[in-house]
Write a structure and sequence with these properties.
Largest sheet: none
Number of strands: 0
Number of domains: 1
Shape: globular
Strand content: under 5%
Low-confidence stretches: 1-20, 128-150
Number of helices: 7
């Protein structure tokens, strides 16, 4: 039953994927979208650890949520293909972050930020929704219950 608890929210999330840098060409393939986001968030987390960014804990929580959705979406026996998608996205995001940070490339920095923002928009309880929550309900764990009550 635990697997079904992830599949139903994953179907909801996949049906409401906003168009954006990571979502525009992946709307037809939620597995690719979430694998891409997990890879990008892994790279983002490594970059934040490297720079000792205090936002790393938020990124880690977001990545964990994405991994749960990805695990629910991944068909049995397809782990090698999913891992490959994650690795490709991680390498691409690492390149953007390195170029943006160490070469002072504003385009690369903005693109990396946009990719992460698009990924965050796919998870209920992400920063965009937490920031919009009324006072007293701004914790990610409290947000989904608040959304279900409305």
């Amino acid at each position: 039953m635990g697997r079904w608890m992830h599949i139903i929210p994953a179907a909801f999330l996949a049906a409401s994927v906003p168009a954006g840098p990571a979502g525009a060409d992946m709307l037809d393939d939620p597995l690719r979208l979430f694998a891409n986001c997990v890879g990008r968030l892994t790279a983002e987390l490594s970059h934040q650890w490297l720079l000792r960014d205090p936002a790393a804990s938020e990124t880690e929580a977001l990545r964990s949520a994405m991994i749960d959705v990805l695990a629910a979406l991944a068909p049995p026996g397809d782990s090698a293909r999913v891992l490959n998608m994650r690795i490709e996205a991680r390498v691409a995001h690492d390149a953007l972050r390195m170029r943006g940070t160490f070469r002072a490339d504003a385009w690369a920095e903005a693109r990396a930020d946009a990719e992460i923002a698009t990924c965050a928009a796919h998870v209920v309880g992400s920063n965009a929704e937490v920031a919009a929550a009324p006072s007293g309900t701004a914790s990610p764990s409290a947000l989904p219950a608040r959304l279900l009550e409305e």
